[in-house]
Specification:
11 helices; ABC-Tungstate_binding; D-Maltodextrin-Binding Protein, domain 2; disordered N terminus; PBP_domain; 278 residues; 2 domains; alpha/beta; ten-stranded mixed β-sheet; Substrate-binding domain-containing protein
Length: 278
């Protein structure tokens, strides 16, 4: 029996060497999600991602950028999933073959914030009238200027108002090329107006004299969608785990987790995965 022990030991070593990569693979299940700064800076991901990882064992690395930049990350194949909020840009992403399907996930709304004195007179629920008032008074306005979903929405609203804000660039209209948090900080420091998503606003603490001035306009609706980056375009995309993330987001546990996220008793995002118009 003694002579057989070295063979047994060698066999155990071999089995352990084979098992180690398998255990490592099980531990290293992860995906990269390119998403908006609003989902990150509002704290939503910090709330829902641990629940997803507990349910699936899949870790999520978030790359938080403006929607346009997040979609570019997907186009390059540097993300497995994109989770953004610009319906027109998302449709273009699909038409270009970088995804095959878009899933509605949730919505909230945009708000116009500005100094409590509101010298431009923007208070109310008509955002187009509010932007016209800002332009007429040439009141300071901060734009993200970063190709984000919020920036795209802002430009659409200026267009509805019949105003080219670029005419005020360098005077009353300032583009900073940064995310929602830095834009809010800049607006707070300069008593300026700004279009913000409500989620980031609710989680933002450095408000100084900023107040919500315009809200409730249906044109301020803000829908979020999620897409798997097409593995036919980028074969290294982790399609199975990426789809598992999408499936969880639109499932009852995922939708319930989104709905449960609140700040000071106020819900930030409203799940609507089953809305055919979402």
């Amino acid at each position: 029996m003694a002579r057989r022990r070295p063979l047994l030991s060698a066999a155990l070593v071999a089995l352990s060497l084979l098992a180690a990569p398998l255990a490592s693979q099980a531990q290293d299940r992860s995906i990269t999600v390119a998403s908006t700064t609003s989902t990150e800076q509002s704290g939503l991901f910090g709330h829902i991602l641990p629940a997803f990882t507990r349910a699936t064992g899949i870790q999520v690395r978030v790359v938080a950028l403006g929607t346009g930049q997040a979609l570019d990350v997907g186009r390059r194949g540097d993300a497995d999933v994109v989770f953004v909020h610009d319906r027109a840009a998302e449709q273009t992403f699909i038409e270009q073959g970088f995804a095959s399907r878009r899933y509605p996930v949730m919505y909230n709304d945009f708000i116009l914030v500005g100094p409590a004195t509101d010298l431009a007179g923007t208070r109310g629920n008509d955002v187009v009238a509010a932007l016209r008032a800002v332009a007429q008074k040439q009141a300071p306005f901060i734009s993200r200027g970063d190709r984000s979903g919020t920036h795209a929405a802002e430009l659409r609203l200026w267009q509805l108002a019949g105003i080219d804000p670029a005419s005020g660039r360098g005077h009353w209209y300032r583009e900073i090329g940064q995310g929602m948090g830095p834009a809010l900080n800049t607006a707070a420091a300069s008593d300026a107006y700004l279009l913000s998503d409500r989620g980031t606003w609710l989680s933002f603490r450095n408000r100084r004299d900023l107040r919500i001035l315009t809200e409730g306009d249906t044109r301020l609706f803000n829908q979020y969608g999620v897409m798997l980056v097409n593995p036919a375009r980028h074969p290294h995309v982790k399609a199975a785990d990426g789809q598992a993330f999408i499936d969880w987001l639109v499932s009852k546990p995922g939708q319930d987790a989104i709905a449960a996220y609140q700040i000071d008793g106020e819900q930030l995002f409203f799940p609507n995965a089953n809305d055919p118009n979402g």
